[in-house]
Design brief:
The strands form 4 sheets. Strands 1, 2, 3, 4, 5, 16, 17 and 18 form an 8-stranded mixed β-sheet that branches. A 4-stranded parallel β-sheet has the order 6-7-8-9. A 4-stranded parallel β-sheet has the order 10-13-14-15. Helix 6 links the parallel strand 11 and strand 12. By secondary structure, it is an alpha/beta fold. Helix 4 crosses helix 7, helix 7 packs parallel to helix 8 and helix 8 runs parallel beside helix 10. The two termini are 14 Å apart. The protein has one domain: Metal-dependent hydrolases (TIM Barrel), CATH 3.20.20.
């Protein structure tokens, strides 16, 4: 199969053609030519789109689908379709499943379900058995089965010694631990940001300290062990400062942030829409601005959609009883363009944390590309949702930018 992408503006600051209009020829999934103008051959499938832009394939580092066990929220098959439609060639899928992803069998099941799909699924195995934070899971066995990292999805590790042992043990096979920071004792029964808004609304708050204290502890453990850690999501100003200091010390640390915390604040809570109930919670405007600065100065490495499907019966409840989470794949690009420059967005959506193989846009490499138009204005509505679950925090929000699709080797949805 021969594809020819015509007149596309390339966004890749490490490429000589950055910000230039080019043609890209792809033969049997491999880039065979990149030039200013390529004459189509008879067997070329020519791709032309309005105001076409192209970048390396986007990666989402924090996604859950539900399967196995909660297929009504999202199946692997449909979740990967949603990801491809949203511009992602790769997704890191975490355990929000039953059984938990804590052994080879579950990993093999998920990999089999993901075969031949356009978007590639990468499994983040649980750090502890059943993600309960008591005993280490079979980390080395899962690594051999294809797990690319380990972490208990959005669950902190109260036992500091257990996290220390995990950071030490995984050095033997060069693995990364995903450590979600949240002190359970300080969090208590809180479910939104502790601040002026929560006080006015009479909601139980989660102090910023709950995240920051746990993060300080985790960074101390990282310094002691010299392991490799990724902080999946931070949400406060001080967390940005702590990560900046840790990086300056040379620790093996990366971190991410949810699109929701970059775009929205706890002011969204005033209508008691349970789609705004998230973990980490939406914070203050001061925190949001600090997160933006953390993106711009390189402290924060990746942005995630934090795609977390929840069934309607677990979401349309009284606010304090509803489950945390929002879907986000379909809206992440359009929402980010309201707060960040295009080049920065692409940089943060293509960072692979050292966990995936680098796929530069050059001749002789596998084609992993995302195609999009950054200038389209639209509003996110229910008709834009192809996820099984409809718990979207961005519903009704103004968006900017349209994803056309992806090319991932010999597969494409264009």
């Amino acid at each position: 199969m021969r594809l020819l992408i015509k007149h596309a503006t390339l966004i890749d600051k490490n490429n000589a053609f950055h910000n230039q209009k080019i043609d890209i020829e792809i033969t049997n999934g491999v880039i065979t030519a990149i030039e200013k103008d390529i004459t189509p051959k008879e067997d070329n499938h020519v791709i032309t789109k309005e105001n076409l832009y192209v970048s390396k394939g986007w990666i989402d580092t924090s996604v859950v689908f539900g399967e196995p066990g909660y297929e009504t929220t999202e199946t692997i098959e449909n979740g990967l379709k949603v990801a491809a439609k949203s511009g992602f060639t790769d997704v890191l899928v975490h355990s929000n499943t039953n059984p938990a992803i804590d052994n080879q069998s579950v990993i093999h099941l998920m990999q089999n379900k993901a075969q031949e799909k356009i978007t590639q699924l990468h499994v983040v195995g649980c750090m502890t058995k059943n993600a309960e934070g008591v005993d280490l899971a079979e980390l080395f066995d899962m690594k051999n089965a294809g797990a690319i990292a380990f972490g208990d999805y959005k669950k902190p590790t109260p036992n500091a010694n257990l996290l220390k042992i995990a950071l030490q043990y995984t050095q033997d096979f060069d693995a990364t631990i995903f450590a979600f920071p949240m002190n359970k004792d300080i969090k208590g029964k809180g479910f939104v940001n502790e601040g002026i808004v929560s006080t006015k609304l009479g909601m139980k708050g989660i102090p910023a300290l709950a995240e920051e204290l746990d993060l300080e502890r985790n960074l101390s453990l990282l310094a002691y062990t010299n392991g490799k850690m990724h902080v999946p999501m931070i949400s406060t100003k001080k967390s940005v400062e702590l990560l900046k200091e840790a990086k300056a010390k040379g620790l093996h640390i990366t971190c991410g942030v949810s699109v929701n915390n970059l775009v929205l604040t706890d002011e969204e809570l005033t209508n008691f829409n349970s789609n705004t109930r998230l973990m980490p919670p939406l914070r203050s405007e001061t925190d949001r601005q600090a997160l933006i600065e953390g993106i711009l100065d390189g402290t924060i490495d990746v942005i995630t959609s934090d795609h977390c499907p929840v069934n309607v019966e677990n979401k349309r409840l009284e606010y304090d009883l509803a489950d945390d989470g929002s879907i986000g794949l379909e809206s992440i690009f359009g929402a980010l363009q309201k707060v960040l420059p295009l080049e920065v967005i692409v940089e943060k959506l293509t960072h692979h944390l050292g966990l995936l193989k680098e796929n530069p846009i050059r001749t002789g490499t596998k084609a992993k590309l995302t195609l999009f138009n950054p200038t389209t204005d639209w509003t996110f509505e229910p008709k834009n949702i192809t996820s099984f679950s409809k718990n979207a925090i961005m519903l009704g929000k103004k968006m900017k930018g349209e994803v056309y699709g992806i090319i991932n080797g010999e597969k494409s949805n264009l």
